[in-house]
Amino acid sequence: MLRTLDDVINKLKSAKRVLVIGHIKPDGDDISSVATMVLILRKIGKTAEGCIEDEIPWFYKNIPGVSEIKRVEQLRDYDYDTSVTVDASEISRIGTSVELLNGKKPDITLDHHKTNVGFGEIDFYDSNYAAAAVIVYEIAKKLGIKYDPSLAEINLLGIATDTGFFKYSNADSKVFRYASELIESGANIQHISSAVLEHRTINEFKLFSEMVNTLKVEENGKLAWAYVSAEMLKRHNCTDEDVKGFIGEVRSIYGVEVAILFVEWPERQVNISFRSKNYVDVSEIAIAFGGGGHVRASGCSQKDVGLEEMIKKVIVKSREVLKQYEAIPPSISL
Ligand SMILES: [Mn+2]
Known about the structure:
By secondary structure, the chain is α/β, with parallel strands linked by helices. It has 2 domains: 5-197, inorganic pyrophosphatase (n-terminal core) (Alpha-Beta Complex); 203-326, Diaminopimelate Epimerase, Chain A, domain 1 (Roll). It is built from 11 helices and 12 strands. It has helices at residues 5-14, 28-43, 132-143, 149-162, 173-184, 189-197, 202-213, 230-235, 246-251, 283-288, 307-326, and strands at 17-21, 47-51, 69-70, 82-86, 108-111, 122-125, 216-218, 223-228, 258-264, 269-276, 292-293, 297-303. The strands form 2 sheets. Strands 3-2-1-4-5-6 form a 6-stranded parallel beta sheet, with helices on one face. α2 packs parallel to α3, α3 (132-143) packs antiparallel against α4 (149-162) and α4 (149-162) packs antiparallel against α5 (173-184). The chain is globular. The structure holds manganese (II) ion.
């Protein structure tokens, strides 16, 4: 049920042992929110553990606090009284971490996805928040937590990554204000940006150039899409982790409003990312294929399908959605 941040604070205050759960295929915001939540709870004398189903991508591991996050197997015997999920819009997003909930709803869910369904006892979600890490920061402020440089840095990670390093439309004044406070507390933004943005491997670059070869631009240059097949990934010794920045590059093409990247990984599973630049709500396309997300960034995933078949279906739908907007003059002209 949708509640206020004060309800969340009261529940946390009465907790003794907390389990914080993030989502599958963790991104910077998820990792940041789980680790920050664990650290602030420990600062007020709670026992707290953080859990993410999947392995954390290696390049995040030098950021303070990330090593605190555990896997499901490590927490099977962890006895907690309060569970919190962060950055997950629905229960399936936490993957096998759900086993730790023993059939119960999470006590608290914190999220900022537009497509959130409210799956906890106390739900706090609001898509006006740029990142789940912004919600966590507000909780920390309300709890009166004193930040040290490490805590500031792990909290800033999520705010930086979910705003595309302060350049997406969600980078509002609050984002800059909080980022400024976190930097004042000792966070090193260069440490974060270097870890997150400058870790490309040669193999990833070669795969990127192959992805570029698959690029198609249509609908008067407004719709751009490309794909990466399982075969391409294997040939370059890459996994789906290595394609994370590709979609942003597709969107960066001048005149493109909607960018789509199809990634087949593993075989017969197609993961699709959608990005828009100025006016199309791409969560609408993702929802049509069982996914979700934000207005400018969304995604979906389907199993037991071929790449070509999926591309066909999704492109047809995307053309349709784009056309709906053509009747409406865009708020920012291209
Ligand atoms: Mn997020």
